[in-house]
């Protein structure tokens, strides 16, 4: 379990306090991970990645207030030593002459199988998430077909964000949560893993006046959705074939997860539960009652 957050500024202008909003989003997203934090941003046609092996509360993220897009991640490490910064998100990748940065929330269970199946190159990066970067690079072209290919090949729990150097941002949602709002006055989109993170971050900015007045739009991001943000502010929506593991007739990804990953994931859930004011035993009780990890996560947030 990790946190995703970001902004997309299609105004072509500076938005005062945009860098401050990034830090607020990062700090509020620490509820979902304190082991590492990172952002990627585009400004002046250049893609920059800044990540550190520490809590977002200990990192001062800076970027120009006219940055077109910022995408960020807070990590609760489950695979790959957090002290080795190359294991932290966002990850850098490239397709032909296009660079991109990818971040992931969730746990992938078939990364080793995919590496063997597609003869992906060995890498020192030990996180399961990095296989998504390698699958995109394998296709050599970052387009909708490549993103669909990646999303349909990975198994487990996931939401991905992909920012490329052409100012295109992709949101890819499996069963991990994503919340997105549009502030038309500022020509700005803001997203985060949960509504709580999103609105807690906006409330401390001048942008919250738009929320209070109702001058904003909530945009649904559903399981199986791929959303592309274009430089003119348009959104292109596509879908991929999403394997819904909650079906009674499907094998749940949780049951295929190695025991050590299961244990780490449960500890993540307990950390979130404690932060939200719930006894950690609640997680064990819900698992014993047959709830999936995603259902438990939703339960924790909804009953806050």
Topology of this structure?
Layout: E1 3-9, H1 18-28, E2 36-43, E3 46-52, E4 69-75, E5 91-95, E6 98-108, H2 111-117, H3 130-139, H4 144-153, E7 156-164, E8 169-173, E9 179-183, E10 188-192, H5 195-202, H6 208-212, E11 217-219, E12 225-229, E13 235-239, H7 253-256, H8 259-275, H9 281-288, H10 293-302
Antiparallel strand pairs: 1-4, 1-10, 2-3, 2-4, 5-6, 6-7, 7-8, 8-12, 9-10, 9-11, 12-13
Helix pairs in contact: 1-5, 3-4, 8-9, 8-10
Question: What would you say this structure looks like, in words?
Answer:
The protein has 304 residues and is of the alpha+beta class. The protein has two domains: 3-239, 4-Layer Sandwich (Glutamine Phosphoribosylpyrophosphate, subunit 1, domain 1), CATH 3.60.20.10; 258-302. The protein is built from ten helices and 13 strands. The strands form two sheets. A seven-stranded antiparallel β-sheet has the order 3-2-4-1-10-9-11. Strand 9 (179-183) and strand 10 form a beta hairpin. Helix 1 (18-28) crosses helix 5 and helix 8 packs across helix 9. The longest helix is centred in the C-terminal third of the chain and has 17 residues, at 259-275. The protein is globular and about 50 Å long. Mean pLDDT is 88; it is low at 245-251.
Descriptors for this entry?
304 residues; alpha+beta; Glutamine Phosphoribosylpyrophosphate, subunit 1, domain 1; 2 domains; seven-stranded antiparallel beta sheet; six-stranded antiparallel beta sheet; 10 helices; globular
Question: Summed up, what is this model?
Answer:
By secondary structure, the protein is α+β, with helices and mostly antiparallel strands. The protein has helices spanning 18-28, 111-117, 130-139, 144-153, 195-202, 208-212, 253-256, 259-275, 281-288, 293-302, and strands at residues 3-9, 36-43, 46-52, 69-75, 91-95, 98-108, 156-164, 169-173, 179-183, 188-192, 217-219, 225-229, 235-239. It has 10 helices and 13 strands.
């Amino acid at each position: 379990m990790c946190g995703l957050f970001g902004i997309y500024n299609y105004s072509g202008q500076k938005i005062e306090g945009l860098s401050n909003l990034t830090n607020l989003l990062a700090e509020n997203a620490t509820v979902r991970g304190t082991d590492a934090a990172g952002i990627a941003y585009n400004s002046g046609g250049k893609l920059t990645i800044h990540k550190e092996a520490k809590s977002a509360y200990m990192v001062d993220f800076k970027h120009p207030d006219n940055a077109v897009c910022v995408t960020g991640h807070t990590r609760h490490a489950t695979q790959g030593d957090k002290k080795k910064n190359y294991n932290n998100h966002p990850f850098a990748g490239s397709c032909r002459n296009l660079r991109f940065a990818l971040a992931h929330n969730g746990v992938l269970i078939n990364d080793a199988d995919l590496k063997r199946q597609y003869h992906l190159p060995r890498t020192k990066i030990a996180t399961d998430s990095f296989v998504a970067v390698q699958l995109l690079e394998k296709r050599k072209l970052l387009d909708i077909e490549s993103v669909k290919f990646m999303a349909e090949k990975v198994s487990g729990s996931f939401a991905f964000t992909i920012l490329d150097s052409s100012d295109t941002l992709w949101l890819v949602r499996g069963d991990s949560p994503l919340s997105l709002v549009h502030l038309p006055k500022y020509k700005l989109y803001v997203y985060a893993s949960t509504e709580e993170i999103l609105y807690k971050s906006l409330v401390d900015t001048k942008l919250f006046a738009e929320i209070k007045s109702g001058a904003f739009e909530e945009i649904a991001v559903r399981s199986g959705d791929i959303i592309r943000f274009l430089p003119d502010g348009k959104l292109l929506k596509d879908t991929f074939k999403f394997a819904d593991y909650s079906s009674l007739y499907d094998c749940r990804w949780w049951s295929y997860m190695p025991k050590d990953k299961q244990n780490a994931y449960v500890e993540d859930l307990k950390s979130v539960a404690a932060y939200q004011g719930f006894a950690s035993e609640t997680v064990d009780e819900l698992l014993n009652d047959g709830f999936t990890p995603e259902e438990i996560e939703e339960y924790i947030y909804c009953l806050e």
